[in-house]
Each structure stands twice: as C-alpha cells, then as structure tokens.
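Sharing a chain and its predicted structure for anyone who wants a worked example. Both blocks are below, sequence first, tokens second.
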Amino acid sequence: MTAGHRPATYTHGNEAAPFGTTRHLIHCPLSWDRCLDAPGVGEEHFVIADHLPDGHPLFNDGPGSFHDVQVVTESVREIGEFVGHRYFGVPPERPGLFHAYGLDLTDLSAWRTGPDGGSRLTTRLRATPVHVINGVPRGLTFHVEVSIDGRRCGTGSAGVVFLAPALYRSQLGYARPAEAAPPEEDRAPHRPPVRADAASVGRSDPGNVLVGEAEQLSGGRLSARILTQGLGAVFAGADGRLPGLHLLESLRQTALLAAGRAHGLVAGRSTLAASQVQFRGSAATGAPLRCVAVPGPLERDPAGRPSLPVTLTLTQDRKAVAEARTVVVQDL
C-alpha cells in the first residue's frame, strides 16, 4: 500500500497560464515512513494530474488529428526541476537542466482527437537520484508512464542535472557564440529564414513555424535553417537562451518536413510515435541555428501505418546542440 500526500497545485513563476492548464503534483511515497518532509534518498513516485489543453497557442495549433505529445514533455520538464528541489534536497541555487528525454506512444488511438479523444492526462513519474554526494543528488532520472482518460498510451524517460552556479554560468556562456563568429557552413548572410508552409510541419499558424528554408543534401539528407529571432511568446527564453520547447518543436517540425519530402507523408495526419533526444548544449537566441534530418527506409508499423525513422541533429556555431532519433507515423 502506498501513502499519498494531498494533491498540490503546481505553479512555476508565470508558466501556468501560458501552458493553459493547472497541474497537480501528487507525491506517492513507497512507505508511510516517507510521508515526512525529509529529503528523499532513494526512488520516489509521483503522479501529475492534468488535462489536455484547450486553446493553447501552440499545442492546439494544427489540423487536430492528434493531441500534441509535447504537452507531456513540458509537464515533465517543468515539474522535474521542482521535484529535485522540493523532495530530494537539491539546493535552490542549483538550477536543473534536462539533458535527455524520450517518449514512445504505445497506443496511438488514445492520442487521436475528435469525439473519442480524451481530456484527462495522467503522467506517472518514478524518480531516481544519481551521483549522490553528501546525501544530495547531482541529477535525477525519471521513468515516465502516460495515460489519457485511464488508457495507458505512452512510456518514456528523462534525465536532469543540477548544476552549481559557476557551471550553470559556463553553460550559458556556451550558448552565446562570439558576435563575429562566421556563418555556419560558410553560408552568408545572417538573415532571418523564410518560414516553411505551416501545413508542411503540422501547424496552422505561420507564427508557430520555426523551420525556414530547407535544401536537399547528398544521401537523402535535408538541411533546414531554424528561426531564432522574431519568435512568439510561447518560445520566449531566458538568459539569452532558446528554451527547450523551441528546440523540441524545431526537431518535430523538421522530422515532419523531411518525412513529407522523402516519402510524401502528410504532416497533418502524422505524429512522432517515438522520440529519443539528447541535449548536447544550449542554443542562443538570435544566432543561426540549423537542423539536418536523415530519413531512413519507409516501413509499416504493426497496424499497417506508414512509419519512417528520422535522425536529426541541431547545430549552432558548428557545435551540436541536440541529437534525436524519431519515428514519424502517418495515421490511416
């Protein structure tokens, strides 16, 4: 039997309003002894009780074939740092940075919108401390299980590190290329990319499009410029860095664009059925950013749906920012 704390509304600064829903974080201790407020020293379980957003400027933008899986990504990202500080005794001056994230959709039908689409979103987290020094973890790993209206429909993982202030400032420095840095791949000039067609990346509002001009390279690769300035409020960052949502959305859009270019998959009927992302560094606002996609062979999933693996790499100032392995699936 597990003991649960009273559900508490989670808010972080002014982020609850932009997200569009109010989330409740429930701590589920493994024993009654863990009901106290002392920092955890081992595995801890949590439940995020939420609703799928309605009217969010990004997550509800598009043809509406599927719920946006990034709802889960953002929920885990925001609450993951809070869990470290609140339940594992990580000092508040150590900010958390996510370095890895993955999600596999195990029941695609649960993610469909429409009359049968769900609205109650439940995310179960199993948090494990790593690199514990003097009883304080330097990071956490999360096992993630997702349900929509009680139907289990996704599993995943995430990793966060908590950096000392000096290391955090160093990380920010990494995200600020020198002003005189040459253009990537000797391409000139530093001008804002022209946005791709919104429908080609699964969006309706052109203001949410992050992918610019794309060109075919050898070996079937697709290289796209990514917008890093003139962005909407949903992509606003801090400390001169692009937020994780911007990077993940850039990867998602490039994967859908590459799937359409390579094999004619329709972005409006497609979603990322699987994604594994490794963050290698931060990216600066306003500096050139590029994403290269490598589509694999077109296959069929067990339900007969077109399924395409796409590998992606985000780079800025010739440095890797993120690498991802995704699977784009088009619904029947």
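Comments welcome. The helical segments are 16-19, 70-87, 165-174, 244-263.
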